């Protein structure tokens, strides 16, 4: 666990997502969860060493499986965007982890465990302020990676947790993305007021404004590639070539190449179908 600012900690040693903890007078504000049960137990044990108050709040930065599979096991009040409630409402009450092809991190750790989802008990629409000490924690709605994505802002400490908005050295998740909105939000991080900020990626810890610029370039390249396919009315199957071209330009480690190809292929196909292909009409079963 690394203290990046007074009473602000991050943990990058668990697979899946970067975890955060903010130690306040009332207790801990936690950011995301490990995805494996053994890591959850280890994380909860590590948090005991921080001391502070006895209360716990868990902030989920979006609804991605990697950061929400373990939320129920954290046994504390969950906070998230109001759109997250709809996402969890549409998921089955239990989820049996099986082999999938979305390219998510949890797929590397298959299990037959049945997961019980922990939907947000406290939600908000645009902004929410948590006042557990003299330095408030601001939750800010920032769609782009998903319709329930948020940022966590600590103005006094100049720290900004970004969730999946910035993901250096790995392809983004695009299934539920809105690329123009995502790009526009990232451009705001290049303003001079953020020059001395610590940015925390939800996947790889501390990142810089250079990483933000690179993420913008990647998203713009992917957006242009999808639009080119649209102009040629390309079948959705041609998306795979766009994913392969991305990995040619941004090579993945050998042990990650197949995972990242699945992630891009799945996300791009879903994004392309959702945004650019006409909806499938339901047939009349009685005709």
Could you give the topology of this structure?
Blueprint: E1 2-5, E2 8-11, E3 19-23, E4 27-31, H1 37-48, E5 55-59, H2 65-68, E6 77-81, H3 82-89, E7 94-96, E8 114-116, E9 122-124, E10 127-130, E11 137-141, E12 150-154, E13 159-161, H4 179-188, E14 198-201, E15 205-207, H5 209-231, H6 239-249, H7 257-276
Parallel strand pairs: 4-5, 5-6, 6-9, 13-14
Antiparallel strand pairs: 1-2, 2-3, 3-4, 7-8, 10-11, 11-12, 12-13, 14-15
> What is the CATH T-level topology?
Metallo-beta-lactamase, Chain A
Radius of gyration: 19 Å
What's the shape? globular
With strands numbered from the N-terminus, the spatial order across the biggest sheet is 1-2-3-4-5-6-9
Major sheet: 7 strands, mixed
Number-wise, the strands total 15
Unreliable stretches, pLDDT < 50, 5 or more residues? 280-287
Helix content: 25-40%
Percentage beta strand: 15-25%
What order do the SSEs take from the amino end to the carboxyl end, as H and E? EEEEHEHEHEEEEEEEHEEHHH
Overall number of domains: 1
Describe this structure in words.
The chain is of the alpha/beta class. The chain has one domain: 4-Layer Sandwich (Metallo-beta-lactamase, Chain A). It has seven helices and 15 strands. A seven-stranded mixed beta sheet has the order 1-2-3-4-5-6-9. The chain is globular.
Give a brief rundown of this model.
This protein is of the alpha/beta class and 287 residues long. The protein has helices at 37-48, 65-68, 82-89, 179-188, 209-231, 239-249, 257-276, and strands spanning 2-5, 8-11, 19-23, 27-31, 55-59, 77-81, 94-96, 114-116, 122-124, 127-130, 137-141, 150-154, 159-161, 198-201, 205-207.
